[in-house]
Every structure is written in C-alpha cells, then in structure tokens.
Amino acid sequence: MYGEPLFLQPVFKDRIWGGTKLKDVFGYDIPSHTTGECWGISAHPNGPSTILNGPLQGMTLDQAWQKHRGLFGGQSGEDFPLLIKILDAKTDLSVQVHPDDDYAQRVENEAFGKTECWYIIDCEEGAELVYGHHAKSRDEFQTLVNEGKWNELLRTVKIKPGDFVYVPNGTIHAIGAGTMILETQQSSDVTYRVYDYDRRDEHGNKRELHIKKSIEVAMIPHEDADFAPVKRQAGDLHIKKLIQEAYFTVYHWHINGTSHVMDNPLYMLVSVIDGEGEIETQNGVSSIKKGDHFIIPSTVKKFTLRGNATMIASKSN
C-alpha cells in the first residue's frame, strides 16, 4: 500500500502580465522575469507535474492517474479533474471568461470547462478585481463591447489578503495588478479574452480576443454565487471550508501545534502557502514548507500534521 504523500514538481508558465514574486515569495526557480503561473498540482497535458518522491518518483501526475487509480480511490473519469495554480499578476490580466463542460467538450475538444476559485495570498493596498458586469442582455453586452465602454460594462470589486473569490464558468473576470492568488480550478486551459487593454506583446502584436465565444458562454445578466464558509477545529488544526460546489471542495488549513486527522476522503490536494511543519503517515514523516504542493492519496487513511503552517487543501467532488 502506498502510504505517503505524493510531492510534486511545479510547472511554470511565462505570461505577459507575470513577474518575479513566485521566486521572491516562494523561492521557486522560475524561468523568466515574467513568470505568471506556477502549476503546482497538474495532470493537464499543457503542463503535468512530476512526482518527486517514493516508488512513483519521476512519473507525471497524469501517468499516475492512468496507471495507479487506486491512489485516487478508484475515482472514475479519463482525466484528472483538478488543477492547482499560484498566479503572480504583476500587471492586469485580460478580462476573460471560461465555458462550461458541454461547450468546452463540443467546441474545444477539452475534457472540462472551467469553474475556478481564488484565495488571495497577497495584494497591494487598494487592489481590485473585475468580477461580473452590468449588462442586462446579450445585445447590451455586445453594444458596450463594440463601443469600447469598458467602464460602463465591467464591474470591479476591492480585495484584501485572505479574501476568497468563487468564479463559476460564465463569470466575466480579471485579476488586477499587484495580486498573488492560489487558484483551484477544473483541469482546463480554455480561456476566452474579452478585453486586453490594447496591450501588445514583445513582437508588437495585440493578443487575440474571442468576443463571439465570450458572449456565447458568458453569464448574462451576472449573478453573484451564494456561499458561506464553515469553520471547525481538529486539535490544533483550524479548518475553514471555503466552498463546496459541484466540482470541488476547498479548505483553508492553519496548523499551529499538532493535529491527528482521521477522515481523509478519496484524496486531498494540498499547497503550503506559509510556514513549515511535517506530515506523518503510516510510512513515516515528511517535512513540508512554504511552496510545497502534494497529494495525500486515498491509501493514507489517517495522518498527523505538526508545525506552524497555512495551507489550501481541496478535493474533487
């Protein structure tokens, strides 16, 4: 029986809006000064993580999903369902929207649409997100886009560190400059850009927009999702269930001391966003530190956490 966490090597993505905070804050060895994304737990073909320890060392997560489904409780499905990222938005991301499963499969030949959520690790004072819009109909949306009336169309919200934002498919959104987030999402890489501030890349070209598809998949009119975090405590582990919805359940964990966890579900995805400590399973003790990403497989039925650390954990629903 495989009785230890699967620690993963992240994959990094250069982005026009990226910076160096993934190195400065988390100590990652990033490939460029415009590194925007750390794919910490990924089985997506555009950037699968590699297992760093144990008998499966060197295997990618998608390979483990295909060949060792018992580690994931025998969960069905051809594709690993979730993708965990850390994003460094040095400048504004494009205003964008993601499709649902049906549209992604039918139009893009992608396994999943993209519902996501964000935990705000850090942001500059006064930072904002684009979240939703003010159009009441698709015709009004199209007219405001055609006329470039972005201030009339787009809805902005203030954010601060520790905030949590749920972004179901169809939500018009954009992460603002000076923001670092941990993103839990369906394992999809389909993004439709609505507006990109007329930016140009290093070759002087504007990035492609996807207005027609954006309007087809957007939630119009916009409606905020209704959810409420739930808190509980297990020993010295403070658990806040941030959201439970169709695709995932996401938790904020803070350990300051020791906690014995007895109810591991199918499998848990864990990213350490601050501090350090250790996790003990039937196979021994592993150290954990800020910037680590690991999976607690279903073959680990109980484990002990020690230390002073903050983590975002999630499971597939």
From TrEMBL:
Molecular function via GO: mannose-6-phosphate isomerase activity; zinc ion binding
Catalytic activity: D-mannose 6-phosphate = D-fructose 6-phosphate
Coiled-coil spans in chain: none
Domain Mannose-6-phosphate isomerase cupin: residue ranges: 239-314
Catalytic residues as annotated in Swiss-Prot or TrEMBL: R193
Gene3D superfamilies: Jelly Rolls (2.60.120.10)
Alphabetical list of SUPFAM superfamilies matching this protein: RmlC-like cupins (SSF51182)
Keyword Chloroplast recorded: no
PANTHER family: FRUCTOKINASE, TRANSCRIPTIONAL REPRESSOR MPRA
Protein's UniProt name: Mannose-6-phosphate isomerase
Key words, A-Z: Isomerase, Metal-binding, Zinc
Pfam families recorded: MPI_cupin_dom, PMI_typeI_cat
Free-text remark on how the cofactor is bound: Binds 1 zinc ion per subunit.
Domain Phosphomannose isomerase type I catalytic residues, every copy: 7-108
Family, as annotated: Belongs to the mannose-6-phosphate isomerase type 1 family.
Binding-site residues, Zn(2+): H98, E116, H173
EC id: 5.3.1.8
